[in-house]
Write a structure and sequence with these properties.
By secondary structure, the chain is α/β, with parallel strands linked by helices. It has 15 helices and 14 strands. It catalyses: O-phospho-L-seryl-tRNA(Sec) + selenophosphate + H2O = L-selenocysteinyl-tRNA(Sec) + 2 phosphate.
Length: 483
């Protein structure tokens, strides 16, 4: 409804009523105008009606929704199912063009505007979350692993002689496969045990760079968010090393946006040394469906180079999901979620500590990990096997405790020709088996209370079964010796 239509409406309905409706409409439009002017996440979240009004207005700017459109090309935004069309708010053309995921589409002004605004709003949120020096970012419709591969492939043109990526070990398959998929050989640097924490061996990273030759190294691939007892890499020291040897530095910040500590590490790394790009997941940080990531950095030209490496157009779904979410939450709402997450981390630590003490275990001391916690499972060590430890994991899963990870000792896993000893523990020989739990964004007090209650029951059962198993094992051993 434009002013002319409102004026015509006054001939049909009382002018005072129409003016009231017009003023209400202007309230929605004022919010949209501020978004277009500032390109920032609104401090206060929008109502769903404002968000839907905005998305419908954008959709009307795409050619597939023109009333008189006659499309004779192979890609005209045709959709067979009206349900699918509604699911996407009739924004069917996706984002980007064949040469650049950030490019504007001539026949999809609305979708292009959606893409530009999403990137601008997300950049604002990254800055609010702690990386104030971030110069540019874009949402890519791939999860973290493939987004890291895209960064590595972009660096290929800058460093054609490089064959290796130096990587402080983290036992997460997609990180490793991201490097192999891009055609590079990961050089795994083992972590060092400091107390209970597994920390970056910066001296070993430097020795590898010197041994391989700086020109043979594509980049250093570091990590912030991770499962305890591993803690975020020493980003500042690695960034300084990368600046010293003129080697790019790519940071896997998968679920680090929700942690002010992880974001501060990236900001400080860029300040004292070199951070070329950092990659984070949309679903883990913003509670949207899986399938998107944010590639960000401190050099706008390099981030644009990465976006131009993406082949073809792309799905707009991840951009649409995160924009709807951030407009609905507002900057204030997202900051509240982050504050609540910190509170839940303290609560989870307290509850796990009480549970651990009741079973003769302890929460591992990992103060440098701001999201994940680990509890020892010494009492489940069997006579030469991990059966009781893995059995606890099965019990938790069947009792609908998701996300908790049970880590046995001595597991081996081969990926891309490299054998990881002690796989899942980020170390060849971590001293104790343990259980992981994380206080990630969106976790509630009820989640923690119910998890600890079920874990308590499962531990009692697992400990009793383990005791019986150990007695049986010792009895069999004794009979063998007597023979």
């Amino acid at each position: 409804m434009n002013p002319e239509n409102f004026s015509l409406s006054e001939r049909i309905v009382s002018p005072s009523y129409v003016r009231q409706g017009s003023q209400a409409r202007r309230g929605h439009e004022q919010l949209i105008r501020q978004l277009l002017e500032q390109g920032k996440c609104p401090e206060k979240g929008w109502s769903e009606s404002t968000v839907e009004l905005f998305l419908n207005e954008l959709a009307l700017m795409d050619s597939n929704n023109f009333l008189g459109n006659c499309g004779v090309g192979e890609r005209e935004g045709r959709v067979a199912s009206s349900l699918v069309a509604r699911r996407h708010y009739r924004l069917i053309h996706g984002i980007g063009r064949s040469g650049d995921i950030a490019a504007v589409q001539p026949k999809a002004a609305g979708s292009s505007l959606l893409n530009k605004l999403t990137n601008s709003v997300v950049l604002d949120v990254l800055r609010l979350s702690g990386v104030r020096g971030a110069a540019s970012c874009f949402v890519v419709p791939m999860a973290t692993g493939m987004s890291l591969s895209l960064c590595f492939l972009t660096l290929r043109h800058r460093r054609p002689r490089a064959r290796y990526i130096v990587w402080p070990r983290i036992d997460q398959k997609s990180c490793f496969k991201a490097m192999v998929t891009a055609g590079y050989e990961p050089v795994v640097v083992e972590n060092v045990l400091e107390g209970d924490e597994l920390r970056t061996d910066v001296a070993a990273v430097e020795r590898q760079i010197q041994a391989l030759g700086a020109e043979s190294v594509l980049c250093v691939h570091s990590t912030t968010s991770c499962f305890a007892p591993r803690v975020p890499d020493r980003i500042e020291e690695l960034a300084t090393l990368c600046a010293k040897y003129d080697i790019p530095h790519i940071v896997n910040n998968a679920y680090g946006v929700q942690s002010s500590k992880c974001m501060h590490l990236i900001q400080q790394g860029a300040r004292v040394g070199r951070v070329d790009a950092f990659v984070q997941s949309l679903d883990k940080n913003f509670m949207v469906p899986v399938g998107g990531a944010i590639i960000a950095g401190f050099d706008e030209a390099f981030i644009q180079e990465i976006s131009q490496m993406y082949p073809g157009r792309a799905s707009a779904s991840p951009s649409l999901d995160v924009l709807i979410t951030l407009l609905g939450l507002g900057a204030g709402g997202y900051k509240r979620l982050l504050a609540e997450r910190k509170e839940m981390y303290s609560f989870l630590s307290q509850e796990l500590g009480s549970l651990a003490a009741a079973h003769g275990e302890r929460v591992l001391h990992t103060p440098h990990n701001p999201i994940s916690l680990a509890m020892s499972l010494d009492g489940l060590r069997g006579d030469g096997d991990n059966k009781a430890v893995t059995q606890l994991g099965s019990m938790l899963f069947t009792r609908q405790v998701s996300g908790a990870r049970v880590i046995p000792l001595g597991k081996e896993q081969t990926l891309g020709g490299h054998t990881f000893r002690g796989f899942m523990s980020h170390s060849e020989a971590y001293p104790v088996p343990y259980l992981n739990a994380a206080a990630a964004v969106g976790v509630t007090r009820d989640d923690v209370v119910l998890c600890v209650k079920r874990l308590d029951r499962c531990l009692k059962t697992a400990l009793a079964l383990n005791e019986q198993s150990c007695k049986l094992y010792r009895l069999c051993l004794s009979r063998k010796e007597n023979k």
